[in-house]
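Form P-L/3: holo structure prediction, ligand PBG.
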Amino acid sequence: MTARFPVARPRRLRRTPALRRLVAETRLAPADLILPMFVKEGVAEPQPIASMPGVYQHTRESLRKAAHDAAEAGVGGIILFGIPAAKDGVGSAADDPAGIVQAAVRDLVSDLGDSTVIMTDLCLDEFTDHGHCGILTPSGEIDNDATLERYASIAVAQAEAGVAVVAPSGMMDGQVGAIRTALDEAGHPDVAIMAYSAKYASAFYGPFRDAAECAPRFGDRSSHQQDPANADEALREVLLDLDEGADVVMVKPAGPYLDVVRRVRDTVQVPVAAYQVSGEYSMIEAAAANGWLDRERTVMESLTAIRRAGADIILTYYAAEVARVLRG
Ligand code: PBG
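OUTPUT (holo model):
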């Protein structure tokens, strides 16, 4: 059938893979992706994480190998989470120069040099025996300002180990400013801060708490993480963090908060990161394992959507795998 007048035909540009590639508005590249990795002290073998198939709590040795492979695949960065052998009320292992994160950072910096960016999560929940992100008062509340002093000290320990970027994830008020000041005073003005600025109190962190062994023993994180109902508040948090010296701001989780990613991207002039968290990963893995979703297509679509919403950088457990696919 011939149209009698010119008809808009958007399908013309969808006809072949080459045409679709030519007009794609959003592209993923290995350098946009950051791989979160777990390293556990005192284990002889990498430990699989039941709720995150394919993700491991690494030994120092297995971390080196996996990080090398990820760097070779071209990932933009690696962010480290540590699980210490011993925990206590103040998370002493977090800023111990011999602590697991500092040891692993030294390994990776010496192995990988500048081939990728080595980063550290900066929080206390993996290191405290109560599993909270900060120091507790006698009545069991989080003491914001006492916690800031701990974060400052952890930042300096991580910087001395050689990390390029620290990523405070505890959502304490004033954490970015406290860390910036401590880094500068300790002679580390070049260490950058990627702030978990809009971090929601999310059920999607469930599997991570197995991975990092940091489920709170009592209570939850709603007094410091954001209410999923709020988006204006995320912008306030982002602007505060920029005022305090953040170099990169992050929205977390990613997929359920794409509107927030877009609003942040339209508001700031620094790189915006989004974290596709453990629960987003586990949902795809579980559905794919059941044959309910096409795993590869779902992974690529989920990451493309996060980029399209405006994230410049994506933290994802798929980083190394997808970087390899993108390299072809
Ligand atoms: C806190 C931290 C958490 C995650 C990253 N940093 C857990 C939490 O806030 O409870 C979650 C990451 C994920 O779910 O993949 N150190």
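COMMENT: The radius of gyration is 21 Å.
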